[in-house]
Amino acid sequence: MSEFEFTDRYKALGIPYPDPQTMCRGQCEGTGYYPEDDSTNQLWIKAESKKHSEDGWHFVQCPECNGTGKRK
Description:
The chain has 72 residues and is an alpha+beta fold. It has a domain at 15-61. It has helices at 9-13, 42-50; strands spanning 33-36, 58-61. The chain is flat and about 40 Å long. The chain starts with 8 loop residues before the first helix and ends in an 11-residue tail after the last strand.
């Protein structure tokens, strides 16, 4: 029988869980960054211009919190 271990983005990144009262409500969900694979998205294009993605994904800075993970 196979065993699977599931984790969330906070444990995977080694960061503490955000405070629900102050965390960004954008796509980053309190981390400040989120994965993006849409090559028409301006954030993806900017990241691609800095470094080519081998798999089509970039972690882009959240425009709602400017990478802080906190609500404005």
